[in-house]
Design brief:
This protein is of the alpha+beta class. The protein is built from nine helices and ten strands. Helices cover 31% and strands 21% of the residues.
């Protein structure tokens, strides 16, 4: 993932783009219904002909724009969404001293190449979705598992490995409250217990772990919804309904303000499609 970002930076800088990191934006500056720049956290105003936001739609509209007459209907649709019925993946990164062995008769190196999706049955999958939408942590859950060091050993020290678990059905709140350390520990232990049927010696291989819950995404990454895809990738947030009906073309009610993040069509998962489509929309209008 970092290699993709580095390549995008290189391509942008070769074309004269100025990139400013660690520069929080306080608000989008709007004049006569047109986005004309952004105000930074230090009060500096950076004027621009076009403003494109990769932040989630709620962050952009609620916090970077705020109350604006042109945004009233748009904001009302966003406000009608009920995150209490949403669920999102929780990521657990495991630093491993060695590769754990699956309970199958195959060479160890082959077992960990590619991604694995672990769930006992289709019925368990349906039950996991239903439990998460009701605000409960499913048991069993669905877990996606990847070990990227099997193809890129530079991600860990020699002989060590990185394993990434994605606990797929995590409610955005735990009994209506943000996730805390106790709940996160329970989720972590529950995931390892479930995986022990497939990876009996996994616990013995773990040197360290790091868990990123929906609350972590809100607190540390600025995702207002706590949803890594910004909005759920299911109805009614798909196709011409994403992010809100009438604005699936990356525009907003504010002229020259566009959205290009995972909350726009067709959603996240590192395809680059929202950004590409947004760029094509802007080129068609202004070129």
């Amino acid at each position: 993932m970092g290699a993709i970002t580095a390549e995008l930076v290189r391509c942008a800088e070769e074309r004269g783009v100025t990139l400013r990191t660690a520069t929080p934006v306080r608000r989008v500056v709007i004049a006569d219904g047109v986005a004309v720049g952004v105000e930074l956290a230090d009060g500096t105003v950076a004027p621009h002909d076009i403003v494109i936001s990769n932040a989630d739609p709620v962050t952009t509209c609620r916090y970077l724009i705020g109350d604006h007459p042109l945004m009233a209907d748009y904001q009302a649709v966003l406000a009608s969404y009920d995150p209490a019925t949403w669920y999102a993946p929780t990521k657990i990164a495991l630093a491993l001293d060695r590769l754990p062995a699956f309970a199958i008769d195959e060479p160890l190196a082959q077992q960990h190449i590619g991604g694995l999706f672990i769930c006992p049955s289709p019925a368990a999958q349906a039950a996991a979705f239903a439990a998460a939408k009701a605000g409960r942590l499913p048991n069993p859950n669905m877990i996606a598992l990847m070990t990227p060091t099997t193809t890129d050993p530079t991600l860990a020290p020699p002989g060590k490995h990185l394993m990434c678990l994605y606990v797929r059905c995590t409610p955005l709140t735990c009994d209506g409250a943000p996730w805390d350390a106790s709940n996160e520990h329970f989720l972590y232990e529950d995931a390892l217990d479930q995986l022990s049927a497939y990876l009996p010696d996994l616990r013995a291989c773990i040197r360290a772990q790091h868990l990123i819950s929906p609350t972590t995404l809100q607190r540390e990454y600025g995702l207002a919804t706590g949803e890594i895809m910004h909005l759920p990738l299911e109805t009614p947030w798909l196709f011409d309904q994403r992010p809100v009906p009438g604005y699936s073309d990356y525009t907003t009610p504010i002229a020259q303000l566009f959205l290009c993040g995972a909350g726009t069509h067709p959603g996240g998962t590192v395809t680059g499609a929202p950004g590409h489509n947004c760029a094509q929309r802007i080129i068609a209008e202004f070129a």
